[in-house]
């Protein structure tokens, strides 16, 4: 069964303290891994798509990387406004079925 | 530009009562439409998706149903709510080609069943 597992569940950082979030996946034939950001009480917002091992994508303080078994979302020198839940997702069984991990709740304190 | 609207934003319903959540998309044609549910501390669970008017695929057996009466309208319904139906319901869309993994989500509808 296709599965997405994210760790840690929650992460607390001081402003400027870099760290990484993990997304491990088990899927038959990866057709893309996707990162989303979700603010409290809001719908998720798309961040990145990664298609193949070794690929990297960057956006401001965020960098996503992909291996054959997992993806990392690296946060460099985070700011309080980076506080959110970060979700990863993969296609499962077809392009109309995107399955999500439970997310990592990131809190960045000044 | 494309926009997606969901309503109501918040709903408190007694067990056994009916439910209707609505979602409309503007600024695009023939979108794929999705209903997800997010329980507290859990990931998003895909409930239904639709690739066209009247075409509904159900991912999880439950007492919920979905309908797509118009191209850009998606409705989530229940005849009798259960306590376990409480959660944050999210509607989403992507273009019909749909292979980018980029979904556009609405603001969500928070349902509490008492």
Descriptive terms for the model:
heterodimer, A: about 110 residues, mainly beta, six-stranded mixed beta sheet, B: about 110 residues, seven-stranded mixed beta sheet, about 55% strand
What would you say this structure looks like, in words?
The complex is a heterodimer of chains A (110) and B (114). Chain A has 110 residues and is mostly beta strands. Chain A has strands at 3-7, 10-14, 19-26, 33-38, 45-50, 56-59, 62-66, 70-75, 84-91, 98-100, 104-109. In chain A, strands 2, 4, 5, 9, 10 and 11 form a six-stranded mixed sheet that branches. Chain B has 114 residues and is an all-beta fold. Chain B has no helices and eleven strands. Chain B is globular. Chain B starts with a strand and ends with a strand. Chain A binds chain B through residues 4, 6, 9, 31-34, 41-46, 49, 87, 89, 91, 95-103, and chain B through 32, 34, 36, 41-44, 46, 49, 51, 57, 59, 90, 92, 98-108, 110.
Write a concise synopsis of the structure shown.
The complex is a heterodimer of chains A (110) and B (114). By secondary structure, chain A is an all-beta fold.
- Residue runs with pLDDT of under 50 for 5 or more positions of chain A: none
Strand content of chain A: over 45%
Structural class of chain B: mainly beta
> What is the β-strand count of chain A?
11
How would you sum up the global shape of chain B?
globular
Count the DSSP helices of chain A: 0
Describe the SSE topology.
The complex is a heterodimer of chains A (110) and B (114).
Chain A: E1 3-7, E2 10-14, E3 19-26, E4 33-38, E5 45-50, E6 56-59, E7 62-66, E8 70-75, E9 84-91, E10 98-100, E11 104-109
Parallel strand pairs in A: 2-11
Antiparallel strand pairs in A: 1-3, 3-8, 4-5, 4-9, 6-7, 7-8, 9-10, 9-11
Chain B: E1 3-7, E2 10-13, E3 19-26, E4 32-38, E5 44-52, E6 55-58, E7 64-70, E8 73-78, E9 87-94, E10 104-105, E11 109-113
Parallel strand pairs in B: 2-11
Antiparallel strand pairs in B: 1-3, 3-8, 4-5, 4-9, 5-6, 7-8, 9-10, 9-11
């Amino acid at each position: 069964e296709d599965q997405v597992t994210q760790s840690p569940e929650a992460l607390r950082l001081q402003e400027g303290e870099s760290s990484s979030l993990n997304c491990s996946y088990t899927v038959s034939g990866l057709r893309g891994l996707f990162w989303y950001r979700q603010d409290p009480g809001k719908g998720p917002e798309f961040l990145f798509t990664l298609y193949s091992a070794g690929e990297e994508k960057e956006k401001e303080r965020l960098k996503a990387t992909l291996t054959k078994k997992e993806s990392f979302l690296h946060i460099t020198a985070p700011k309080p406004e980076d506080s959110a839940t970060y979700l990863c997702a993969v296609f499962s069984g077809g392009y109309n079925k995107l399955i999500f991990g439970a997310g990592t709740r990131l809190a960045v304190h000044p | 530009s494309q926009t997606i609207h969901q309503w109501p934003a918040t709903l408190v319903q007694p067990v056994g009562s009916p439910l209707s959540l609505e979602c409309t998309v503007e600024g695009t044609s023939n979108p794929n439409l999705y209903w997800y549910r997010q329980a507290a501390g859990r990931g998003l669970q895909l409930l239904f998706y639709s690739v066209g008017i009247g075409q509904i695929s159900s991912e999880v057996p439950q007492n919920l149903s979905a309908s797509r009466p118009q191209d850009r309208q998606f409705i989530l319904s229940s005849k009798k709510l259960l306590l376990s139906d409480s959660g944050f319901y999210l509607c989403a869309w992507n273009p019909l080609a749909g292979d980018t993994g980029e979904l556009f989500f609405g603001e969500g509808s928070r349902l509490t069943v008492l």
